[in-house]
């Protein structure tokens, strides 16, 4: 019987995250802001942040103040951008925790500046430009006036200018080149007016992989650091120098032989064949493994189908023969030469990163090094 204390766990390979960070630094030739939002895409914010900083990332990024607090409480002192900005009610704490904020709204900027001055501090901000993402940011033609206004606010320090791509290549009426040209236009207009922020950044993972002219002097790397692969490649082929860092495992807690015609799971959607061996894993949709039919797990390097509806805390797997209790199954990741790549689940679950970010925090992360 297995000595492993966990019914299900996720192995995170920190050496690989470090190598991926070094690869991005080397391939782009510019500095890296490591995106560790959403619990570092499920990898664990604190350990991941330490790994990427060890490997040379200059800055971190999260989306909420609470995520920044977690990093600070763990003793991480590196600069951290909060992508989501700060509401008026949060700004004192954001300043106290030395956040870096994207600035996109004049009224909010004035509040931030007043609060920073009241606290005797200057708050570093990056001008956020909407070049086509249609989310945060001022439109390119407003950028110069906005930058000049921000420049009058004594509590703020313009440290950067940034925008975000809606994709790479063509995506409907615009494409990444359109956005890139709009962003270049803003950077040049600001420079001509004497505004040259230290950081200029546009690229996230897909642009890091495919749009070398989008690097400016900083890239914001999320998925690539975790080895999530080329999100647009259905096979999840890894690019040279990048490797997967996430392996979700579980051990069988029940294995039994069924008679023909027995039903399995809620709503009895599966019926066994003669002498079918069904194993139970203590992991389910409550852990973040979505209840979408057609999935499989790896057992001793073989694909075994998940049968019946996935329960909140269990799933049933049809096995080719009996195994000892405690036998390991891989839900996502590698087992010997076999692999269930993130892209496979991404296709079924509709997003390249859904599977990692959805994995419940109740599942222990076990950190490994090569
Ligand atoms: C503003 C911004 N930059 C960078 C990223 C990182 O994206 P990716 O994981 O594709 O590298 C995100 C993620 O959503 C983002 O919102």
Question: Mind explaining what this structure looks like?
Answer:
The protein has two domains: 14-226, Alpha-Beta Barrel (TIM Barrel); 246-340, Lyase, Ornithine Decarboxylase, Chain A, domain 1. It has eleven helices and 21 strands. It has helices at residues 14-28, 37-41, 45-54, 65-73, 91-96, 106-118, 143-152, 176-192, 205-210, 342-349, 354-357, and strands at residues 8-13, 31-35, 59-62, 80-82, 99-103, 123-129, 156-163, 170-171, 174-175, 199-201, 218-221, 246-258, 263-264, 270-271, 276-281, 296-299, 302-307, 315-319, 328-335, 338-340, 365-368. The chain has an eight-stranded parallel beta sheet. A six-stranded antiparallel beta barrel has the order 12-15-18-17-16-19. α1 (14-28) packs across α3 (45-54). The mean pLDDT is 93. The chain binds pyridoxal-5'-phosphate. Pyridoxal-5'-phosphate binds at residues 35, 83, 164, 204-205, 220-223. The site of pyridoxal-5'-phosphate has 9 residues, from β11.
Task: Give a nutshell description of this structure.
The chain is of the alpha/beta class and 370 residues long.
Keywords:
28% strand; TIM Barrel; single chain; binds pyridoxal-5'-phosphate; 2 domains; eight-stranded parallel beta sheet; six-stranded antiparallel β-barrel; Lyase, Ornithine Decarboxylase, Chain A, domain 1; 370 residues; alpha/beta; elongated
